[in-house]
């Protein structure tokens, strides 16, 4: 029997909240970097998600929406300043565009915590975190110098600040519910604020928010409860969690399994998306950061082995994101009961209709897959002695593909090279700045001429 004869990924699913999902293929969250000057939704984000809405996905997960504009991951993120200052009509248009063809869309909500290099806060005001432990950008002199400038030591949060952030998560979820989205996903992985509370490496508190492994869960539990208090019962609430931090002193798989069990016991969550790593050790960006057995290497997904283990500790539906490329690999993952959904991120930047290909029973397995492509021009960046620079460039390449669709209204270009894109961008900037440069030289020349005449 071939993979297309029996397709678990084509089967519908219903989340505990009652949300019906037509198939098991999820467009996972990525960094769109399309925030306008006011960091609210705009025509670019509408166009991008309208394309994904037509792609026959079972579920769409948006990129980060920051709950506090003072502490974003990037200044180009979409952000919420407050309920009073939010233009709800723009968010309604975003929800309408992404769900225009019946695919429910869930908004990923986040606070960058100690990984916020800058935001709408006073100059040189440090980021906040559970403990004053800075993020390491590497051991080289360059990395340490850059760290002091870009990622300084964060300020330990007071209980009042913790309560403020909890309320901001609840306010953001309430806005998304009013806008018409199907749910929210709390970003609790990759070293951001919620993740840093969950990790023993970044949470050294001795109070109720960190004195024990379970105490480190208190911040997340308060966010879940605060969101549930203000959204409809049918509104989905999920969380993205690390299977491991993949760094010394960080969250281990055994500790992560306990966290999944405690979340199950606490309740209030409709799904868990499994990921891993932080920007100190970016496992979410590729397999080279993940120690895996030979048996696991034969599987496509990065975190599937952990998902199979954690199945015994929770009944909450699971999404595994990262590494999936073929229909056979996806069907095998769902059929094995290791996960309920397969999350696909980067390939969706190039194939907005990828589910149509995967679900087409007329295609043989070898053709039912994401296109294979190579990102050229990254080798030089891999030599830079700063953590995550190489993986960051590949992330930027996929970001450019989204911008081709959203801003340029063009199709993606798998042949795009990193150095080619950088060169073309520099030429455009030079072309735009040429008149200004000429004007400056003219002003200087005229000033010198007048000075000489009058002297």
From TrEMBL:
Pfam family, one: Oxidored_FMN
Regions that span the bilayer: 436-454
UniProt KW Oxidoreductase keyword: yes
Keywords for the protein's UniProt record, in alphabetical order: Flavoprotein, Membrane, Oxidoreductase, Transmembrane, Transmembrane helix
Top-level division of the source organism's lineage: Eukaryota
Gene3D superfamilies: Aldolase class I
Sequence ranges assigned to domain NADH:flavin oxidoreductase/NADH oxidase N-terminal in this UniProt record: 11-354
A molecular function (GO) term: FMN binding
Protein name, entry field: NADH:flavin oxidoreductase/NADH oxidase N-terminal domain-containing protein
Species for this entry: Adineta ricciae (Rotifer)
């Amino acid at each position: 029997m071939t993979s297309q004869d029996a397709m678990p990924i084509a089967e519908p699913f219903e989340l505990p909240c009652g949300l019906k999902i037509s198939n098991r293929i999820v467009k996972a969250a990525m960094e769109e970097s399309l925030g306008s000057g006011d960091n609210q939704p705009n025509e670019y984000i509408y166009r991008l998600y309208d394309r994904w809405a037509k792609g026959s996905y079972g579920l769409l997960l948006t990129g980060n929406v920051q709950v506090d504009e003072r502490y974003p991951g990037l200044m180009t993120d979409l952000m919420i300043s407050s309920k009073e200052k939010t233009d709800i009509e723009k968010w309604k248009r975003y929800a309408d565009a992404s769900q225009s063809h019946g695919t429910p869309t869930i908004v990923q909500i986040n606070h960058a915590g100690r990984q916020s290099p800058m935001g709408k806060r006073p100059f040189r005001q440090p980021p906040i975190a559970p403990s004053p432990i800075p993020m390491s950008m590497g051991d080289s002199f360059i990395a340490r110098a850059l760290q002091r400038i870009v990622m300084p030591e964060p300020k330990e949060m007071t209980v009042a600040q913790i309560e403020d952030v909890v309320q901001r998560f609840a306010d953001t979820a309430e806005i998304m519910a009013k806008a018409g989205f199907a749910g929210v996903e709390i970003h609790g992985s990759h070293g951001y604020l919620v993740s840093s509370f969950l990790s023993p490496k970044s949470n050294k508190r001795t109070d109720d928010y960190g004195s024990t492994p379970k105490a480190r869960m208190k911040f997340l539990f308060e966010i879940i409860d605060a969101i549930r208090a203000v959204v409809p019962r049918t509104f989905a609430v999920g969380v993205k969690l690390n299977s491991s931090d993949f760094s010394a002193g960080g969250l281990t798989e055994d500790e992560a399994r306990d966290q999944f069990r405690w979340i199950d016991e606490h309740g209030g969550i409709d799904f868990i998306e499994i990921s891993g790593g932080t920007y100190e050790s970016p496992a979410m960006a590729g397999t080279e950061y993940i120690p895996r057995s030979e048996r696991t290497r034969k599987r496509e997904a990065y975190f599937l082995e952990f998902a199979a283990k954690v199945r015994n500790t929770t009944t909450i539906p699971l999404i595994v994101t990262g590494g999936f490329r073929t229909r056979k690999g996806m069907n095998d993952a769902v059929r094995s009961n290791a996960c309920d959904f397969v999350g696909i991120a980067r390939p969706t930047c190039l194939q907005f209709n990828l589910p149509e290909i995967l679900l087409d029973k007329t295609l043989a397995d070898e053709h039912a897959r994401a296109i294979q492509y190579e990102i050229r021009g990254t080798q030089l960046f891999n030599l830079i002695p700063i953590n995550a620079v190489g993986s960051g460039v590949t992330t930027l390449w996929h970001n450019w593909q989204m911008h081709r669709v959203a801003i340029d209204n063009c199709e993606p270009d798998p042949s795009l090279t990193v150095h080619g894109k950088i060169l073309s961008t520099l030429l455009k900037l030079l072309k735009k700045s040429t008149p200004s440069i000429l004007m400056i030289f003219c002003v200087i020349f005229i000033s010198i001429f007048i000075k000489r005449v009058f002297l």
